[in-house]
Amino acid sequence: MSPTSDGRITWSRGPWGVVTGVNRGIGFEAARQLALHGLHVVLTSRDAAKGQEAAGRLLAEVAARAWAVETHGGIHVLVNNAGVNFNKGPDNSVESAEQVFETNYYGTQQMIDAMIPLIKPSPYGARIVNVSSRLGRVNGRRNRIGDVSLRDQLFNDDCLSEQLIDEMIKKFLEQVGQGTWSSNQWPQMYMDYSVSKLAVNAYTRLMSRRLSDRPEGQKIYINCFCPGWVKTAMTGWEGNISAEEGPDTGVWLALLPCELGTNGKFFAERREISF
Questions:
Q1: Do 143 and 198 touch, CB atoms closer than 8 A?
Q2: What is the domain partition of the chain in residue ranges?
Q3: What is the SS3 assignment for 259?
Q4: What is the reported pTM?
Q5: Which fold has domain 2-273?
Q6: Burial of 224 by CB count in 10 Å (0-12 exposed, 13-18 middle, 19+ buried)?
Q7: Where is the signal peptide (predicted)?
Q8: Using CA atoms, how far apart are residues 27 and 207, in angstroms rounded to an integer?
Q9: How far apart are CA 216 and CA 270, in angstroms?
Q10: Beta strands in the chain (DSSP E)
């Protein structure tokens, strides 16, 4: 693997990557563009009936894991794109909040847990890229959470943990069940989606710390990015960015040369932004 003049990586031994949620939109384009850069890409997509959604997700993860090991001995790149958002325009319904968290956060978490043991050692480091959103920023000016104490804990690496993230989600879902969720405590735009992406961002930082101690030759770099408001089915085709442009930053992160590698950061338009 070596960098080209424009900063991309060329791979000499045909590495393998996995992209989730590839049936349309950003996931499809991320897979296509990685393939154009020379990666062999495993495409995963849930297509189960609503009642079998959880089983379908688990089956897809297990199947992808087994296939990657048996056929190629592992992977080099994982792009976690699969996600849902049931809010459109000014709508801020939380009727599907549990499904949003199961897909956007817990699905991402489970995929990472399943795939990390399969990532092949490499002197250049393997890559995990999580598709996220600016809507999930801890301290965003327009859509931040109102709980100052929780914001401080999420920003503090010494406080950040899976338990903290799980407790935040549990508290949100409890308020949804009680009908008390509509307050200044939570993001006011696309509320359940925003909190789910806040969880993804926090987990990305947490995993970067856990993975940073891996020895040379077994490094795994994990980052997240916001593709922007992309014209896909999730946005009702109302975005201002094309599906072809949406995954650009994610593909860039997956293919950065090792000397430019970064870990536990949040990006948009190929620039680091704050959590």
A1: no
A2: 2-273
A3: helix
A4: 0.79
A5: Rossmann fold (3.40.50)
A6: buried
A7: none
A8: 22
A9: 26
A10: 2-3, 9-10, 16-20, 40-44, 77-80, 126-131, 220-225, 266-268, 271-273
CA triple 33-39-43, angle to 5 deg = 70
- What whole-number distance in Å separates Cα of residue 80 and Cα of residue 66? 18
Q: What is the pLDDT of residues 134-143, one digit of tens each?
A: 999 998 887 8
Whether 145 has a pLDDT exceeding 70, the answer reads: yes
**Cβ burial 182-211 (10 Å sphere, 16+ → b, else e):** eeeebbbebbbbbbbbbbbbbbbbbbbeeb
Closest CA to 204 of 256, 253, 243: 253
Q: Looking at residues 46-60, what average pLDDT do you find?
A: 43
Cα 188 to chain centroid, rounded: 22
CA dist 140 and 9 (Å) reads: 33
Share of the chain above pLDDT 70, in %: 80
Residues that are catalytic: 193
Give me the residue label for tokens 């495409």: 43
- Judge whether residue 90 has pLDDT over 80: no
Q: Give the residue from 8, 1, 78, 81 showing the smallest Cα distance to 42.
A: 78
Measured CA to CA, the distance from residue 42 to residue 59 in angstroms comes to 15
First to last CA, the chain: 31
Provide DSSP, 179-219: T---STTS-SSSHHHHHHHHHHHHHHHHHHHHHTTSPTTS-
